[in-house]
Specification:
Helix content: 40-55%
Radius of gyration: 18 Å
Strand content: 5-15%
CATH topology of the largest domain: Rossmann fold
Distance between the termini: 28 Å
Oligomer: single chain
CATH class of the largest domain: Alpha Beta
Number of domains: 2
Length: 259
């Protein structure tokens, strides 16, 4: 399918690996020129080179911490007039609700709520003036079904979801569609970290922990970053013009919900 976005300009955050890279690759395959970001210069530079060579698009790497004002300023300067925004940031560490203090919550909210909001406030007005834009926020399945050990993430991402529910309807009339993707467990570094946590808590091997977590997913496997990226690219397509303010769940059927 021709997504109709060849020649558009996109910004994908936290794109050196995992779900962010999956989104960047899918957009590049559709012909989108990119600015991509991550904290590690060597990784993001190599990722940009690989994607540009594979798909023949322009890819500008920016090594910066997108969760800080300074990092966002550097990324936004490189991004310029952006048609497509994919927000993404690593999740806060797991833990117990009794152990987190105010500073823990502020860090989580800054990274997983305020970063996405700040990027939208910076880039969406330009999309509105030009009459076209797409925003995809990578959040989590925990927005639909909170995960007890990920209370910091639950809190911050639910806040971002609430913000998007309101603002997405306000900008849709200007040709800008804002949506969220809610990933379940995908085969990424984040999954490896959570597998390790289960392994340590239960005194079992990482392979056993992974099999245990996979058994709770109807597909019996973790998701793949390239499939996730394809969904992201579709939400950024011309054909997605009637999808507004939605939370698209990609979890292999793990959440047993009707709506």
């Amino acid at each position: 399918m021709d997504l109709g976005i060849k020649g558009k300009r996109g910004l994908v955050c936290a794109a050196s690996r995992g779900l962010g890279r999956g989104c960047a690759e899918a957009l590049a395959e559709a012909g989108v020129d990119l600015v991509i970001n991550s904290r590690t210069e060597a990784q993001i530079t190599q990722t940009a080179r690989d994607i540009a060579e594979k798909y023949g698009v322009s890819v500008i790497p920016v090594a910066a911490d997108i969760t800080t004002e300074e990092g966002r300023a550097r990324v936004l300067e490189a991004a310029g007039e952006t048609d497509i925004l994919v927000t993404n940031a690593g999740g806060p560490p797991p833990g117990n609700w009794t152990d987190w203090d105010r500073d823990d919550f502020i860090r989580a909210i800054d990274a997983n709520m305020m970063t996405g909001i700040a990027l939208m406030q910076a880039l969406v007005p330009g999309m509105m003036r030009r009459g076209w834009g797409r925003v995809v926020n990578i959040t989590s399945q925990s927005v639909r079904s909170p995960i007890p050990a990920l209370g910091l993430s639950n809190t911050a991402r639910a806040g971002l979801t609430g913000f998007v529910a309101g603002m997405s309807r306000q900008v849709a009339g200007h040709g800008v569609c804002v949506n969220n993707i809610l990933p379940g467990i995908h085969a990424t570094d984040r999954a490896d970290s959570l597998d390790k946590g289960v392994s340590e808590r239960q005194g079992i091997s990482i392979d056993e922990a992974r099999k245990q977590r996979q058994s709770a997913i109807p597909t019996g496997t973790y998701g793949r970053a390239d499939d996730f990226g394809a969904t992201c690219a579709f939400l950024c397509s011309q054909q997605a013009r009637f999808i507004v303010g939605q939370n698209v769940l990609l979890d292999g059927g793990a959440l047993n919900v009707t709506i």
